[in-house]
Here is the input.
Amino acid sequence: MAARVLLNSVQRLIVGKAFVTRNFSSETRTVTLIPGDGIGPEISESVKTIFAAAQAPIAWEPVDVTPVKGPDGLFAIPQKAIDSVHKNKIGLKGPLATPIGKGHRSLNLALRKEFNLYANVRPCKSIEGYKTPYDDVDIVTIRENTEGEYSGIEHVIVQGVVQSIKLITKEASIRVAEFAFDYAKSNQRSTVTAVHKANIMRMSDGLFLRCCRHVAEKNTDIKFNEIYLDTVCLNMVQDPTQFDVLVMPNLYGDILSDLCAGLIGGLGVTPSGNIGADGAAIFESVHGTAPDIAGEDKANPTALLLSAIMMLRHMGFGDYACRIEKACFDTIREGNVLTGDLGGKSTCSEFTNEICRKVEAT
Amino acid sequence: MSFSRNLGKLLSWQVNNEFSRYTYSYSSNFTHEAYGGRHTVTLLPGDGVGPELIGHVKEVIRFSGAPIDFETINLDADHGDEDYLSHAMLAIKRNGVALKAPIETKQGSKSKNVELRTKLDLFANIIHIKSIPGIATRHHDIDIHIIRENTEGEYSNLEHESVPGVVENLKIITAEKSTRIAKFAFDYAVKHNRRKVTAIHKANIMKLGDGLFLECCTNMSKLYPAIEFEGMIVDNCSMQMVSKPQQFDVMVMPNLYGNIIGNLGAGLIGGPGIVSGMNLGDQFAIFETGTRNSGRSIQGKNIANPAAMLLASSQMLDHLGLKDHGKLIRESVKKVISEEKIHTPDLGGQATTLQVVQAIVKDIKEKTQQCLCLYILGYRSN
Here is the structure.
């Protein structure tokens, strides 16, 4: 008992406040798994296999989020899926295909609203063994996920004139800024940079910036600076090593996070996490469903695996995360068993088995 | 398909030949009178490194022998109230053409740069991103023309605080301006023999706003069947720009995306020091650096790269019909950057601004002396 208390406090020092969970033991945690469409089920199986090989204390609860017609005639996520995530608080999601047709809201949007996922975190780190024109990239983009330009509030004023409203609120800006600083502290990052265009959008980005400054004053151990969006883009493609953690409103985050993903090799190797209020979090792969290779054992599970590793860290299972991550990166660096998109000729199963082999060896 | 392209070429050739004084404008209403054979150009030195760079441009233009007089207007962060702005606008309207460095925006005040552009209705901003030999970059063979709608979109300056702590910013997209910029982009593609126009948008999220922009571009593309047209979502575009920028040809987009993609493109070929941009309207034109950075951090240190401003001035000379002088300056700049490799720190070199300018002036002098000799000997130079 005393040992557990001691372990708690030591872990708290190392891992930090934001990522210490309630069940601080090795008991199994249940996680909602949304396999998704296309290559989703295959890569979810890969992740489950690798986690089993690592003996990670995760139990999976797969759910299907295919929209069903509700009593009001509108399509919505099945209640079972919603209840599962509410219960487990943590989810892992594969790629979802957006059904075409009227009456279907974007599923990602629905999940985001349901669980109030206010921050999207995308750590982009260069992968050894997967060469891109950019080396030593190690950037984390934290994007406000609920408002900004994506509020969806648009009107046709008169025929041929449309206004789209970008909404910035103090509450959401402070919330995401606090998350950014907490993340920086928990992950030993030194600088948080707020990205804005307050010279043009004086009130809206001005408010966002003031909120970031306010939170920075309370977190003096982390360096804080501000930079214009266009300057970030200019400097990012010349020297990405100068950036650390970036925090920004919705649209800029969308563009910059995809830009950073492009620097390290694309969406196929980029993890992503959506953090919600009350400790809820859904980690996902952000690439497409690749229907052309679905079912052919050609998919690359790296993105989903790295997202699952992020999930382990979030839950406080840092050592499992490190082992699996090392096995994954070692496999890619050695370059013997790579999937097609990484430049190899192996199948998804071979890639998975190689990682399992390495994990079991540690 | 080739008939339409040839027809397009024929029409633009006609425009060019009949109105040869008015080249480089898409509209045949554009006129620039040269009084006594000399043009007057408004200069706006702005802030940051602007004043030093504009000073060098004046010197280089003088050495090139271009018949240009300057009218310098001091509109900057310290002299920026309504009177100064109207004075500047009057000068630009009078002369028709201006060369400008960015004016810094003080906290809480409106951007003078945006006001100049919207009030003078300079609706198209064009940046040409082309790989320059002699500069080490990660990507090669890039040749992209970025055409950005310059007067509406996110830069409409319409914001209000509905309740304390909740701010709304209005992004306005109109069919009229979207169609105008789309037409400009396609005409530009035809005139410059480009094969593809890509419209950048986020219409999957901003269905009405960017949806309208995309619709206008799509409708315009039907009038130009010889030019390939595609739409691309802005986040995918940024990813493609850093992995395969060679796929892009002419890109057209609303205001903010133009800012982002323009800066991205400039970074890909070597930075803000070598990219020039122009803002064109029906009646007036302002030439400036492509990425509009004021360079406050390097002000007064003699390390700013003068190439961007000099290339902008060469585009301005082309615009005024002084194509020989424009070409002279442009080729000297390119020779110094690509062959002699005299680079300022932003390009990885050690040279000062002055050294680069002196090398350019030296090259211009050599060439103009050659022309003079040939002329004296009875030959016409080309």
User: Anything to note?
Assistant: Chain B touches chain A through 58 residues (CB under 8 Å). Residues 123 and 180 of chain B are 8 Å apart (CA to CA). Confidence is low (pLDDT under 50) at residues 12-29 of chain B. The first strand of chain B starts at residue 39 and ends at 44.
